[in-house]
Amino acid sequence: MTAPSKTGELTAEQAGREHALAKAAVLDFACVAMLLTLGLGADSLTNLAEGIRGGLMTVVDLVALTVLRRLHRGTLAGFDFGTGKIEQLVSIGIALSLLGGALWVGMNAVETVLTGQSDATPLGLSLAAVSGAINFFTNVVAWENVRQATRGRPSAIMRAQLRARTTKLFCSVVVQVTMTVAAVAKDPVIVAAADSLGALLVCGVMVRAAWELAANAVPDLLDRSASYIAGPALERAADALPAGFSLESFRSRGTPHALVLEVALGCAPGTDVAMAQRAERSLAAALAAALPETQLSLVVQAVPTQP
Q: Which of 13, 26, 114, 290 could serve as a FRET partner for 261 with CA atoms 20 to 30 Å apart?
């Protein structure tokens, strides 16, 4: 769990994580522009598929960076309950775009395999292989930056980013290998097969990414309760509350990886603000211990109760 900054100043760990994701996004945009240009210009299906996948997933990464920045600054209230969940709507849109892109590129790849002919020129394939090498190198740099930033306190967002970076690194290896084979091959059938195989492998990654995005976004978008996660954790955390405070009610949404939780604590009338803040800190620390693998957005409200 990453605690929001109370003073407006970020810790070194928080600043490092934001910097790593921002740097990775800049590298991604440069690679995507190169891959799409060569994919369209050289008629390389593999580069085109990787460019589409990379571009769409970079949008997801930027949304993750925005959410992380708001978590660090304690300004995530707009993402809590009800409508207006921008990040989930973006995820659904990206998932649909990934499926559409995978279908389009996949159909072209299958057609290329069946005909045994590729429209890519030798010069275009050579440039595609060079771009694949550049793409691989930048993905290694971005992956290492995110891996280093993931160290320290658990963060579901950073773990998800590291998994995404690992997938991107795998895709860049696929692009590099298939484009190199296509560039050095003399037989047009081998050229078509290598380019199509690379494109289909990337399409498979696109379909899997679309499924994961939709599976994580739909429950939040529908405000599905996460009481099966929050209830047991709150029962354990309630023991850490100071005397005079009790758990009255809660509502929740999310998944085991990212949970939004709103808690009402009962207290005696006239309880001062300092005591309420102490109870909130105690509950937050106990929940962080009970849910160490969960990115938690917590809102606590003290509610006076009649004796």
A: 13
- Cα angle: 86, vertex 88, 90; to 5 degrees: 70
Per-residue tokens: 188: 């047009």
Listed as own residue / partner, the contacts of 27-34 with beta carbons closer than 8 Å and 24 or more positions apart are: 27/138, 27/139, 27/141, 27/142, 28/54, 28/57, 28/58, 28/61, 28/138, 28/142, 28/168, 29/58, 30/138, 31/134, 31/135, 31/138, 31/139, 32/58, 34/131, 34/134, 34/135
β-pairing verdict for 295-304 and 258-267: parallel
Q: Token pair 């600043």 is at which residue? A: 15
pLDDT in single tens digits along all 307 residues of the chain: 444 554 457 788 888 888 988 888 898 888 889 888 888 887 788 888 888 888 888 887 887 788 778 777 766 544 443 334 566 666 777 788 888 888 888 888 888 888 877 777 778 888 888 888 898 999 899 899 888 888 876 566 677 778 888 888 888 888 889 888 888 887 888 888 888 888 898 888 888 888 887 877 776 666 556 677 778 888 888 888 888 888 888 887 766 666 777 888 888 887 888 888 888 888 888 888 887 766 666 777 777 776 5
Residues counted in the chain: 307
Q: For tokens 């659904």, what's the residue?
A: 92
Architecture of domain 227-304: 2-Layer Sandwich (3.30)
For the chain, give every domain's residue range.
12-221, 227-304
252 and 259 in contact (C-beta within 8 Å)? yes
Distance of alpha carbon 230 from alpha carbon 217, whole angstroms: 18
